[in-house]
Amino acid sequence: MGEYRQPSNEQEFEQNFAQIKPLMNKTEAYYESSRCLFCYNAPCVEACPTHIDIPLFIRQINTDNIMGAARTIYDSNYFGNACGKVCPTEVLCEGACVYNHQDVKPIEIGRLQNYATSKAIADDVKFYTQGKANGKRAAIIGSGPAGIACACELRKAGVHVDIYEAKSNATGLTVNGIAPYKITNEDVLEELAYLQTQFGFNILYNSPIMSKDDIARLEKDYDAIFLGVGNGETSVLGIPGEDKANVHGAVEIIEHLRREHYKVAFGKKVIVLGGGNTAMDAASESARMGCPDVTLAYRRSKEEMGAYHFEYELAKDAGVKGLFNAAPVEFYGNGKVTGVKFIKTKVENGKLTNITGSEFVLECDMVIMATGQKSHDYLFDSISNLEVNGTKVKAENYQTTNPKYFVGGDCLNGGAEVVNAAYDGKHAAIAILQFLGIR
Ligand code: SF4
């Protein structure tokens, strides 16, 4: 079980949040690439949402053709470096590696991917050129992985691209929403700069698109518009006491931590509500911030959690305790939260039910709610004929019910991985090019 001391400076923060997939050196990369069987119809390729030719790039690394390997990766995924670090490879490519059938450690595909792409970024090796200007203009709302991937593909075809970003920094989820032990801000921003110098898209920071007037202006100035805004802030639970101080949304506290590092104040007794991957991240991060008592509380059983098993193991290794079949009913405290009242639950006739009289209170000085996110209704409501289903924008082949608008990433799929957003952005761009009569 991990025991972390509260970090009081950047160095201690970096120690507590050491990268779980550190960069390989040349010997490690050579050894690891030598183990690959270069399978025919490789299952790792099938399992990768962007279908990178994994055996090819591993062979290229093994023959010291590192730039060839990086090119193979980037040809399928513009976020080749970020995805090598933040992808849940344990359930994607590495989870599908044939070695798993022999009880042998699967090939470390993610780290090999980073080995090649980080060298291309460090040496600023340019693989792509911008297409000849064809007079077409596209606006992209949101500079997360979906928006950036869309921009790269459009610029390659000669479309002028302006990205409208509400915040003062880019790459959305990757900078703001990923646990710092998976990727550093520097890694994300270096890959973004690398892509921007190759593809030449504009990012307009601090430029939220909020109103019908903003939308009317975009519709006048651009031939196509891509919505890559992701999900919004944490949804409220609607239980008493939710407005008490030190009750935070997981997305908001993770974003705060990514920016302010050791300066963010965490409690001594933290309760994290939720059973998804965001809850695991928030719990792990609380423990790594030196909280001696972190409880992850989920209203259903451990087996029913939406989180990947390895993410729960990671949280447990950091010192997090699990509390299952416990639903929050009230937050206690006088101004600041001091406890959460739970009721025990069980499944009866296939339905989750509260067990009458089973209420209990768990003391705490901080609560993190990882209980889902809102959608960007203000934006979607401003666009005529745009149909939305819950938090998701409806689309066919990435084109929404308003034909000028395309969509990808979390606001299309409801919330998935960076790799899914990168795939969506690229393929939405291909759909936009068809719409504009370019391809
Ligand atoms: Fe190599 Fe494993 Fe992919 Fe086979 S499944 S090509 S061994 S990484």
In words, what does this structure look like?
With 439 residues, the chain is an alpha/beta fold. The protein has 18 helices and 18 strands. It has a five-stranded parallel beta sheet with strand order 3-2-1-4-18, sandwiched between helices. Strand 1, helix 9 and strand 2 form a beta-alpha-beta unit. Helix 6 runs antiparallel to helix 8, helix 9 runs parallel beside helix 18 and helix 14 runs parallel beside helix 15. The chain starts with 9 loop residues before the first helix and ends with a helix. The model has no long low-confidence stretch (mean pLDDT 95). The structure holds iron/sulfur cluster. The site of iron/sulfur cluster (SF4) has 15 residues, from helix 3 and helix 4.
What would the keywords be for this entry?
alpha/beta, 5-stranded parallel β-sheet, binds iron/sulfur cluster, globular, 18 helices, 38% helix, 18 strands, 439 residues
Which structural category do the helix and sheet elements fall into?
Answer: alpha/beta
**Hetero compounds:** iron/sulfur cluster
Q: Would you tell me the overall average pLDDT?
A: 95
- What fraction of residues sit in β-strands? 15-25%
The description of the largest β-sheet is:
5 strands, parallel
Can you describe this structure in just a few lines?
With 439 residues, the protein is α/β, with parallel strands linked by helices. The protein is built from 18 helices and 18 strands.
